[in-house]
Amino acid sequence: MYHLARSLYLYATSKPGKSAANNWSEYSILLLGLDNAGKTTLLTQIKALFNTTVDPSNGAVGEAPASTTAGNTVPTVGQNVATISLPDMYLKIWDVGGQWSLRRLWTSYFKSCHAVVFVVDSTDLGNGEIEEAPKTPGAMWHGRKKSYVGKVGDDEVPETPWTPMTPMTPGFFDSGHAQGRLDECRAVLESVLENDDTQGIPILVLANKQDREDCLEVVRIKEGFIKKVFEGEKGGMVRDSRVLPVSALRGTGVKEAVEWVRSRVVWNKETRPPVMR
């Protein structure tokens, strides 16, 4: 009975034509970004859009529509994971919580991931223009690596520079000021780019919430924010990267984002080989 059940399970979860001599590639994708950027909504929408539907009248297989309930999510505490099946591979997508207390966990995923999708909230970036110094009141650049630290006097030297992975004083990044969370988003994205384990892998930045009237246009996000980060001292190197607009809530742009990731992990498979299933 056990062997029968196991055989049925393997048959149900296998791809058509799959054999021991023809395994399928699995690539791990990291969904990162600040809390409330829409990562879990995006993952929910990806799962909905990449399911297939079967017409009960004739058995025809077709594409599934976008989810109408993708926005019914709660903040991620830890991680969510889902695997979608594409014609030539599996994509295993990891949605890791974006609260500052969880960001220190991100680095444990870097070495085994094949691409990073960094989601930004287009409605919380102010005018999208970053400067050489942060606009956050009471903050300053400090040290060779230009880490954020709290407000100090001219003669004081902070004991521990702040990094995007460590706790901060409540209200340090004030989403109420003109720049929204632009400075925080910049610092966190830079921390991802400068990590040794993300060197050489594709980076997709998704400008989410483009369906809202108060969103910042994707061209301004790209030119005023993302381009400056990637070309800055912490960008590290020439990268395989792109910026795309999406609405995770409505599902627009989601398929294009997944297709870009699919094509780039295949292109990069010699540098970071997939897991074979």
TrEMBL record:
- UniProt entry keywords in alphabetical sequence: GTP-binding, Magnesium, Metal-binding, Nucleotide-binding
As recorded in UniProt, coiled-coil segments are none
Binding of Mg(2+): at which residues? T40, T76
Chain sites annotated for binding GTP: G33, L34, D35, N36, A37, G38, K39, T40, G98
Report the domain of life of the source organism. Eukaryota
| Pfam families linked | Arf
Keyword field contains Acetylation: no
Q: Does the keyword GTP-binding apply?
A: yes
Q: Name one GO cellular component term.
A: Golgi apparatus
GO MF:
GTP binding; GTPase activity; metal ion binding
- Please list which residues make up the signal peptide: none
| UniProt GO BP | Golgi to plasma membrane protein transport; intracellular protein transport; protein localization to Golgi apparatus
Q: What is this protein called?
A: ADP-ribosylation factor like protein 1
